[in-house]
Amino acid sequence: MTPAATPAYRRLSVEERRSQLLAAALGLFAHRAPEDVSLDDVAEAAGVSRPLVYRYFPGGKQQLYEAALRSAAEELQLCFDEPREGPPLPRLSRALDRYLSFVDEHDTGFSALLQGGSVVETSRTTAIVDGVRRAAAEHIYRHLGVAEPGPRLRMSVRTWITAVEAASLIWLDEGKQPPMTELRDWLVEQFVAILTVTAARDPQTAAVVGELAADGGN
Fold it and tell me: In the list 128, 175, 184, 208, which could disulfide-bond 96, CB 3.0-4.6 Å?
């Protein structure tokens, strides 16, 4: 009988190995606060040695955390990268579905990320998080068909993004209740409500609300 062939070992490329380590780190940060994750934990999760983790992240845990945070930020930004086809509000609903699914999957890490207070929090990590907010706002302006939003519209959109973050944290704290779809619909309704209040004081926002109404509000 011919013995079963042993699978050939394939050495990972630098980029593949780095991606493997980041995936392992993100998995840990998703369920533990950053200060509760060690390089040994990451090495064990990735099935590699601690010196190998240091080889790819010579800055240690801080560098690894920032790289993992940047990777998560890129994923969050993509949540709002919805094709500009069809009415704006259904697009926003689909974007929120992806955003809330990310929150659900990375619950503890998401809380640590937004609430701050971590021993590994720096001005760089704060800038990464703020970059997600700004990118989300830019996507929303494009979905609304506004090339140059004025101060009142910008304030309204950024206030809503802050409300989404706060609602997400409260949702996690409340045992993920109400159901995700109900939370999504409520957040879309809040978006329309904020714009409607602003529209009474700002012609640009009033035009946006008029366009949403012309689309049937859906």
Answer: 184
**In angstroms, rounded to a whole number, what is the distance separating the alpha carbons of residues 17 and 11?**
9
Cα–Cα nearest to 183, from 93, 59, 69: 93
> Cα separation of 30 and 33, whole Å?
8
- Which one-letter amino acid corresponds to residue 100? L
Q: Letter for the amino acid at 197?
A: V
Region of 85 on the Ramachandran plot (φ > 0 left; ψ -120 to 50 alpha; else beta): beta
Give the pair of three-digit tokens for residue 109: 């890490």
**Backbone angle region of 49, left / alpha / beta, with phi > 0 → left and psi within -120 to 50 → alpha:** beta
The DSSP secondary-structure symbol of 83 reads -
Whether the CB-CB separation of 80 and 95 falls below 8 Å is answered with yes
Per-residue pLDDT of the chain (218 residues; tens, 9 = 90+): 444 444 444 577 888 888 889 888 888 887 777 778 889 999 999 999 999 999 999 988 888 888 888 887 888 888 888 888 889 999 999 999 999 998 898 776 676 666 554 545 667 777 888 888 899 999 999 999 999 999 999 999 999 999 998 999 899 889 999 999 999 999 999 999 999 999 999 999 999 999 999 876 55
Measured from the Cβ of residue 152, the count of other Cβ atoms closer than 10 Å reads: 16
DSSP per-residue codes, 150-196: -HHHHHHHHHHHHHHHHHHHHHHHTTS-S-HHHHHHHHHHHHHHHHH
